[in-house]
Design a protein that fits this description.
Blueprint: H1 46-49, H2 57-102, H3 104-111, H4 116-129, H5 134-145, H6 147-163, H7 170-206, H8 208-212, H9 225-245, H10 248-252, H11 261-264, H12 293-317, H13 324-331, H14 335-344, H15 349-381, H16 386-400, H17 413-431, H18 443-471, H19 478-498, H20 504-530, H21 562-573, H22 575-581, H23 597-602
Length: 609
């Protein structure tokens, strides 16, 4: 039986009859002159299928890392926009819901004797009390799901809270509020960790040439600080806009149903520093007409759509914070160690000195939304001005977030202390000021106070997050540190929830004392660091790789048989002898190296064969 000719002629070989050239083209067709087609069996194959002649390796490498840097910027913007939309939807829905449920006529006509005030109180309790336990599970959840997927899961829980407002019942609102309270600390801890990691990755992609000049080394301490300052400024400029976004349902929907201040404030006798509790004497009916259920469903559907958009932003546009092998390393330190490490970080004197600032950070943002906005603003200007007052606070804080970039030229303590001093002056001014109810001449003072308070809040938030990202730049610790930070914020918010019925002077006094202690403790910490006092950090255990797969092949091999495992164990027992027999010119793994899966697939046993 005759052998069939090859389907593809071999490059460089003549045909069987000598009637074809090296390209398999018959002689009669010919090849134009000047193409430089080699003849004969010795023609090199590279001249036919060689590399692209104009390929520039350095230019392609530069383009590659530029794309990676643009990807990091995309991640920062997507995470910032997702956090803004999520928090804006949550605040806007909660504010509209509490105003509607406060009105007696709305409760009686819409829900009868269902007990909405009791449901609202339990819902607020679930939101404010549940985060107290977050220190126990937040690091475990972040390590288990990963930073990006923890963000996505928490945003999804916020969307779940929005969806339950379609059917306002005890068994829908209260469980969703408890779930929301459980997601608060994991969301913002993973957000802070994510922004810090993006700054570190941007540094790596900007200084890739340094890694090529020698063996890979850890970047210098604080090398990512400039990028971290920029990214935190971007994040908090977006985040503070969420307070303005939260007022859109009030401006475009609820304000059309509200009474004016002459009706709602008719029984209010004192405001500001002379007030007690929250809006003592405020009218029980605030709605002129009741909104139609169809209109409420439309508003809630829009909010639900925005929450779903935030989920898509985090899911589709946010890249991973760590490489897959890095995430496995972070999980492989042991779940017991992950649970304990947040508590062990209390040994670090830097964290102990920053705890008062963490607590004040929770106090001041809630005071802006309740004490300043309600006790001073609504009490004197009416409920219809609440949205514009919070928008002034939001815009001031968003614009002032870029003042954190002063840390590029000034010492890192300057922005943080400047924001604290501004809040100190405002607190002292509010302590001695009591606006008169229903008097409009003093409105401009309240707007200026709201803007200035937003400036101080922005300096506080950007300064603290940047400080933590600079002091704790080890990727093995960042999720623990941001968990501690946001847990103390949650504790402070819980304390404000418990003391909501206190007189305004008591609230301002607590705020003032906490601020002074926070600044003094922080300056003491900086003084210790200048003296060279070394912080005591808990040791992070080495990863114990227990996975089965191709990611780790040093110790465990998922494809080995029992006999290979025994042979590997015998080799491990004689490891010292193997090391002695190792030669400098040989394979550094030694003759007892276990074959990799590729070698096993080929049927060989590595160097032993």
């Amino acid at each position: 039986m005759e052998a069939k000719p090859p389907l593809y002629p071999v490059a460089g070989a003549a045909g069987p009859e000598g009637d074809e050239n090296s390209l398999g083209v018959p002689d009669g067709l010919g090849v134009p002159d000047g193409l430089g087609v080699p003849d004969g069996p010795e023609a090199p194959l590279d001249e036919l299928v060689g590399a692209y002649p104009n390929y520039n390796e350095e230019e392609e490498e530069r383009r590659y890392y530029r794309r990676r840097r643009l990807g990091v910027l995309k991640n920062v913007l997507a995470a910032s926009a997702g956090g803004t939309l999520t928090y804006g939807v949550y605040l806007g829905l909660l504010q509209m819901q509490l105003i509607l449920h406060y009105d007696e006529t709305y409760r009686e006509v819409k829900y009868g004797n269902m007990g909405l005030p009791d449901i609202d109180s339990k819902m607020l309790m679930g939101i404010n009390v549940t985060p107290i336990a977050a220190l126990l599970y937040t690091p475990v959840l972040i390590r288990f799901f990963g930073t990006k997927w923890m963000m996505f899961l928490a945003v999804g829980i916020y969307a779940l809270f929005v969806s339950t407002n379609y059917w306002e019942r005890y068994y829908t609102l209260v469980p969703s509020a408890v779930a929301l309270g459980m997601a608060i600390v994991p969301l913002w801890a993973s957000m802070g960790n994510y922004i810090t990691r993006m700054a570190q990755k941007y540094y790596e992609y900007s200084h890739y040439k340094e890694d090529e000049q020698g063996p890979p080394q850890r970047p210098p301490r604080g090398s990512h600080a400039p990028y971290l300052l920029v990214f935190q400024a971007i994040f908090y400029s977006f985040f503070h806009l969420s307070f303005a976004c939260a007022q859109l349902p009030m401006i475009y929907f609820l304000n059309y149903y509200l009474y004016d201040l002459n009706h709602t404030l008719w029984n209010v006798k004192s405001c500001g520093t002379n007030s007690h509790g929250i809006l003592n004497g405020f009218n029980k009916t605030v709605l002129r007409t009741l909104p139609r259920s169809k209109n409420l469903i439309v508003v809630e559907t829009v909010l639900m759509g925005v929450a779903f958009l935030a989920m898509l932003l985090v899911l589709g546009l946010c890249g991973a914070a760590y490489r897959p092998t890095e995430e496995i390393d972070l999980r492989s330190v042991g779940w017991g160690n992950i649970f304990q490490l947040p508590f062990k970080h209390v040994r670090d004197f830097r964290l102990r000195h920053l705890v008062p600032f963490f607590i004040y950070s929770g106090f001041e943002v809630l005071f802006a939304c309740t004490g300043l906005a309600l006790g001073y603003g609504v009490c004197s200007m009416g409920l219809e001005r609440l949205a514009y007052l919070l928008i002034a606070y939001s815009l001031g804080a968003s614009a002032a977030s870029f003042l954190g970039l002063l840390g590029l030229w000034l010492p890192r303590s300057v922005p943080l202390v400047a924001g604290a001093v501004l809040h100190l002056l405002l607190t002292l001014s509010l302590f001695f000021w009591a606006p008169v109810p229903r008097v409009q001449k003093q409105n401009w003072i309240l707007y200026v106070a709201a803007v200035l308070w937003g400036v101080g809040s922005a300096l506080n938030k950007t300064g603290l997050s940047t400080l933590l990202g600079i002091m704790y730049e080890d990727k093995e610790r960042q999720d623990f540190i941001f968990t501690i930070y946001h847990w103390w914020q949650a504790v402070a918010i819980f304390a404000v929830y418990l003391g909501s019925s206190l007189p305004m002077k008591a609230k301002l006094g607590v705020l003032l004392v906490t601020l002074v202690v926070a600044v003094a403790s922080y300056l003491w910490m900086e003084q210790k660091l200048r003296r060279g006092v070394l912080p005591r950090q808990p040791r992070i255990p080495r990863p114990q790789h227990k996975v089965r797969g191709y990611r780790y092949l040093e110790e465990d091999n998922s494809d080995e048989s029992d006999a290979e495992g025994e042979r590997g164990g015998d080799c491990g027992q004689g490891q010292g002898a193997c090391a002695e027999e190792e030669e400098p010119q040989g394979d550094p793994a030694g003759p007892c190296r276990r074959p990799c899966p590729y070698e096993q697939a080929l049927g060989g046993d590595g160097l032993e064969q």
